[in-house]
Design a protein that fits this description.
This protein is of the alpha+beta class and about 290 residues long. It is about 35% helix and about 20% strand. It contains 9 helices and 12 strands.
């Protein structure tokens, strides 16, 4: 079967043409391409999402991305989006079927020259300590703005954090997000379940960046290392843990270890979110 968008073909956004340079990834629901603006000679990312229903995932993802890009410097910006023109019909409309139905949505967004965090670690290994923590702060700042506007990401992971420079990363891929559910009796100082999960996923991404490997999960299953990590209770246990898994001791301080561990303990009290997250969530200004 011929490719829908082969290298050298053109796609249109914002009344101008973009030339396909490379297919970045493709699966049954999504295709992502690197494209070059023929007018500005600048690289962008073109993403095509298969819809589910008239107002499906692609349109919702695009609208969330527009919102987040307007309030945070640490989310990948979208510039344009529209429904792909449907194929010519070979049959009459079925009863109740709409002419307005679309099955694919196109999004034009920023291009991350270094790719996603996972691929950078695969090529170069664990991040420098200061870079990993800087990126973690930026992820938290981006999440704070998303949560302030009532949305969660739902899929913070190395594959969805995009590296723009050695000093800047941005959150991308908003297809699994949604609106935060209001729970009756919820206390304002407490994190919603969706917010807490986003932050925990950000902490797991930090661990991946510091160690250069997936320590907590493989094939979506928790590792034995994760349960050993949870069993650490005090300095003596920490020393035993770092004897079994020495790269933890090589790549972070003991205080960092217990900071990370604090996000994975059963809680009977409000979760204490990191200050940079709270500042971003509380501030009305773009961060």
């Amino acid at each position: 079967m011929p490719q829908k968008h082969p290298v050298g073909s053109a796609v249109s956004f914002m009344n101008q043409f973009f030339t396909v340079q490379e297919k970045i990834m493709r699966n049954e629901d999504t295709a992502v391409y690197k494209v070059l603006s023929t007018r500005r000679r600048k690289l962008f990312t073109f993403k095509k999402v298969k819809e589910s229903g008239r107002y499906g995932l692609g349109k919702q993802e695009y609208e969330r991305q527009l919102l987040f890009g307007s309030v945070s410097s640490y989310t990948v910006r979208a510039f344009d989006g529209y429904y792909e023109k449907p194929k010519r019909r070979k049959r009459p409309l079925a009863p109740g079927e709409s002419l307005l139905k679309r099955d694919k949505f196109r999004i034009l967004m920023e291009f991350a020259p270094h790719g996603d965090l996972g691929s950078v670690v695969s090529r170069h290994g664990a991040f420098d300590y200061n870079v990993a923590w800087r990126f973690f702060d930026q992820i938290l700042a981006g999440l704070g703005k998303m949560h302030r506007h009532g949305h969660f990401h739902g899929s913070i992971a190395p594959r969805n954090i995009f590296i723009f420079s050695p000093s800047e990363c941005k959150i991308g891929d908003f297809g699994k997000g949604g609106q935060i559910r209001e729970v009756e009796g919820h206390q304002a100082e407490m994190l919603h379940e969706e917010e807490a999960r986003d932050i925990q996923d950000a902490v797991e991404t930090l661990v991946f960046a510091l160690l250069g490997r997936h320590a907590f999960a493989e094939d979506r299953e928790r590792t034995e290392e994760f349960y050993d990590f949870l069993d650490v209770d005090g300095h003596s246990d920490y020393m035993d843990f770092t004897w079994m898994y020495p790269d933890w001791g090589w790549n972070m301080a003991e205080k960092d270890f217990f900071f990370i561990r604090s996000f994975f303990l059963p809680r009977r009290e409000p979760v204490t979110a990191p200050p940079i997250y709270i500042a971003a969530k509380m501030s009305p200004r773009k961060v």
